[in-house]
Amino acid sequence: MQFREVSICAPYLEVIEEMSAHEFLSFHSSFKPFLNGLTPAEIISKVQLDHAADKQIRNYSSGMKQRIKMAQAFFTETPVVLLDEPCTNLDAEGIALYLQLIRDYTQNRTVVVSSNDITEYEFCEMRIDMNSLK
Q1: Strands, E, within the chain: which ranges?
Q2: Burial class (CB in 10 A: 0-12, 13-18, 19+), 54
Q3: What whole-number percentage of the chain has pLDDT above 90?
Q4: Is the pLDDT of residue 109 over 90?
Q5: What interhelical angle do 21-29 and 62-75 show, nearest 10?
Q6: Average pLDDT, the chain
Q7: Residues in contact with 67: Cβ distance below 8 Å, sequence separation at least 6, in sequence order
Q8: Tens digit of each residue's pLDDT (9 = 90 or more) over 83-96
Q9: Domains of the chain listed by start with CATH number
Q10: The whole model's pTM is what?
């Protein structure tokens, strides 16, 4: 599997904090295209960060940074989406957004969720309990 086939969201994944959300997503799209030809502005709107689109990411709250990481993972055109504790730093509104993104943008894609919180993986058809593999 090549890097172009996988997108990832993890709480400790680094983003370029000197960039704005718009700059960051534009830069990212030079490596991997977005789903359905979506633009960075449309993606920013879908993750509800219109009000901060031109602010440097360094000035975002941890929840806002997690939304940018989700945007990068969900809207990149890849067949595999890896999500490591995707709701870390998200409030109730952010968790609702995560679940909506799962419903709307993961059809016909393999989604792997690593989490101890059932809210983050309740939708999964197949589960592997690492504790049962001893």
Answers
A1: 6-9, 80-84, 110-114
A2: exposed
A3: 84
A4: yes
A5: 20
A6: 94
A7: 47, 48, 49, 90, 94, 97
A8: 999 999 999 999 99
A9: 3-133 (3.40.50.300)
A10: 0.92
Residues 6 or more apart whose Cβ sits within 8 Å of residue 28: 72, 76
Q: Which residues, 6+ apart, have CB-to-CB distance to 134 below 8 Å?
A: none
- CA 73, 78, 79: angle at the middle one, nearest 5? 115
DSSP-based three-state secondary structure for 58? helix
- Mean pLDDT in residue range 108-123: 93
Length of the chain counted residue by residue: 134
Token pair listed for 27: 């830069």
Q: Residue 125 pLDDT more than 90?
A: no
